[in-house]
Design brief:
Iron(III) ABC transporter, solute-binding protein; Rossmann fold; ABC_Transporter_SBP; ABC_transptr_periplasmic_BD; 348 residues
């Protein structure tokens, strides 16, 4: 009996030693993982563990991710990213154009997983508007994905802070945000006291042949409000809802702003359309194409503050007579894109 008790005790001791050893191993592995990674909460509310000292970045949506990477001074770490359209690609110098060549990785917000895997990014910044199945596809392939969004100014600032934390450059993120806040404050100081009944009603029109407009759910509505105007389509929902010419005539906007697709055809497409000849905006020649020729200022990213200044200067020229829009853009681009707006071929 005594021998049996001793054997049982010895067995329990061995079990305790094994459990302790395993616990210590797990603890050590966890400590090593904590040293090598950090955990962040992305803008979908997901907990994402990302590596420290990231050297290879992919920004899957070029409207926000790539601009922020540049603003944070981390562009040398980008792999396989594509700025939307060729114009901004052409504006980059040859070294960066080579780096930004598409490599077949991204086309219309879809990604070639095989090519992406070959690029070996340590983190992928994906705009939330990207198809959710694509995010799952990336993660199923073993890629680390951080979701970002920017359909409001506040969201875009949160995206900057999130990305700056992931890339360990918080100070640069705050510098970028402070520059944007300064421009927003300058606009607010000049238009904040404009009475509601004196603020122009603006139609933000997009979509070439199809008459699609910026709805109340979209960044453009926030931009118009920040610039001292109202969106006539603010009551509409979803992204780029289609409307009829009759609806536009009913709205009778004071100003029409043409987004990138509509603006590509020029303002003549509106002025020459006989259906719109009686609109106040047409009669008073208040139809404008949104800038710029090397990358639009109305996409979700803090760069949209330039668009807000442009809108405010356009609709309140007397209040912004001292603002040289090109010079302002030159300074902003030089600080946060590495080259001035003019050096990159930018025109307004």
């Amino acid at each position: 009996m005594k021998k049996c008790v001793i054997l049982v005790g010895f067995g329990l001791l061995l079990l305790l030693v094994a459990v302790y050893s395993k616990t210590m191993e797990v603890s050590q592995n966890t400590q090593n993982l904590d040293i090598q990674t950090i955990t962040v909460t992305d803008q979908l509310g997901r907990q994402v563990r990302v590596p420290r000292d990231i050297q290879r970045i992919s920004a899957m949506n070029t409207h926000i991710g790539a601009y922020i990477v540049y603003a944070l001074g981390q562009q040398d770490k980008l792999v396989g990213n594509v700025f939307l359209g060729s114009r901004l690609n052409q504006a980059m110098d040859s070294k960066e154009k080579n780096k930004m060549s598409g490599n077949g990785m991204e086309r219309n917000h879809t990604a070639n997983i095989e090519t992406l895997l070959a690029l070996k990014p340590q983190v992928i910044f994906c705009e939330v508007a990207l198809d959710g199945s694509a995010l799952r596809q990336f993660e199923d392939a073993g890629l680390t994905v951080v979701a970002i969004k920017g359909e409001t100014i506040e969201e875009s600032f949160a995206a900057v802070r999130l990305m700056a934390k992931v890339l360990d450059c918080d100070d640069k993120g705050e510098e970028y945000i402070n520059a944007c806040v300064k421009l927003l404050g300058m606009v607010e100081n000049r238009v904040g006291d404009v009475p509601a009944d004196k603020r122009p009603n603006i139609l933000y029109l997009e979509g070439g042949a199809n008459l699609t407009v910026a709805s109340g759910d979209m960044l453009q509505t926030h931009m118009l409000k920040a610039a001292g105007a109202e969106n006539v389509a603010a009551d509409l929902k979803a992204r780029w809802p289609m409307v009829s010419p009759e609806r536009i005539i009913q709205w009778n906007p004071d100003v029409i702003i043409l987004g990138p697709a509509a603006g590509a055809s020029g303002t003549s497409a509106i002025f020459d359309n006989t259906k719109f000849s009686t609109l106040k905006a047409v009669e008073q020649r208040q139809v404008y194409a949104f800038p710029s020729n090397i990358g639009w200022w109305d996409f979700p990213a803090p760069h949209c503050v330039l668009g807000i200044v442009w809108i405010a200067k356009t609709i309140y020229p007397d209040k912004f007579a001292d603002i040289d829009m090109t010079a302002l853009a030159d300074d902003f681009y030089r600080r946060f894109m590495g080259q001035s707006f003019t050096e990159m071929g930018g025109k307004l």
